[in-house]
Prior knowledge:
The complex is a heterodimer.
Chain A: H1 10-21, H2 38-44, H3 54-57, H4 63-73, E1 95-99, E2 103-110, E3 116-125, E4 130-131, E5 138-143
Parallel strand pairs in A: 1-5
Antiparallel strand pairs in A: 2-3, 4-5
Chain B: H1 17-36, H2 42-70, H3 76-109, H4 132-155, H5 159-186, H6 194-226, H7 236-261
Amino acid sequence: MWRRLSSQFPTLRSAAKSNRLSAATLSSPANLRPTVPFIARYFSTATGGVVKKVEDVMPIATGHEREELEAELQGKDILGINFPEGPFGTKEAPAIVKSYYDKRIVGCPGGEGEDEHDVVWFWLEKGKPHECPVCTQYFELEVVGPGGPPDGHGGDDDHH
Amino acid sequence: MIESQRHSYHLVDPSPWPISGSLGALATTVGGVMYMHSFQGGATLLSLGLIFLLYTMFVWWRDVLRESTFEGHHTKVVQLGPRYGFILFIVSEVMFFFALFRASSHSSLAPTVEIGGIWPPKGIAVLDPWEIPFLNTLIPLSSGAAVTWAHHAILAGKEKRAVYALVATVSLALVFTGFQGMEYYQAPFTISDSIYGSTFFLATGFHGFHVIIGTIFSIICGIRQYLGHLTKEHHVGFEAAAWYWHFVDVVRLFLFVSIYWWGGI
């Protein structure tokens, strides 16, 4: 879902606002990502420059739990794709929504403050930009995964 | 990494345990009613139901341990589920015990003529609250302190010390249960001796039952701690056991103050 920066980050929000005003001059909207998991901070306090491994933190970790810990230790946000946010998308600078597949359900909440509207859901497909019928926000899909249909048929998705 | 994990949730596999647990509960309740009304086969159905229920509890929790500890499905966000669930469970337990205390106060605050208009009822010899009952309030409180010691040991990564602390927790719990059994054996009244006996044994009996559940929970945590399942980053099962233990502690405090002390003087 295309969400603007939450109110917990006032400084970044003002940055987003100024970005929105100058969006026409940018080739693509800046992808603001203020979310630093607090765990990452927690884990990185102990050692200075040395990169910690999962084995140092939780030797018995396995599966998804291990992947999550590893990403946190490396400062990566593996689920950041789930919370797209940034300035209002226009035809010149569309709002880019990342997707593992060739299409993804996206919801448009409208602009900021007075311009906000009830979330309008739609399928955003590769190569087919979408304009919100309510607020004219412009969206484009960027495929970052294996592509193909998202229903799992023919893909390597094992539904876990 | 992204290829394998596209969300941080745990989509559980189909499991037979919800339906087997339901059938076990059905057999237990129907068997219990039949047994108490002296129907033929009541005891058999009750026993089968209880065995079925205990078996389901064992295999279901075994599956949860496999999914969390050995398959790593319990990510940070998944751990929130059992936490909220357990907090809600304890809230429901608080309401359950509130009803038992309410039954006691309802009968003691305005004693009826049938029991002589006094509390404790006429002819009932009560226990001295400052003997075994007071001691048996301090013992579970000390056990609660020991479980906090175990928690600090886990957070500090001192695995052996956490096992020792849990052994102390469980030992104190067993001493409590022993004293409580002794008290029941020596009590000058029974559950059928007026409303006093009924409310006394209902409230203290259900508390004792919860102590036994908490003791088993702590023993399981001790075994898992010994096996290295509990780490300083991830020990939801232990946290739940500790919350439960503190809850049982608080109930004992209320039991002592309102039923043993206030209700016995």
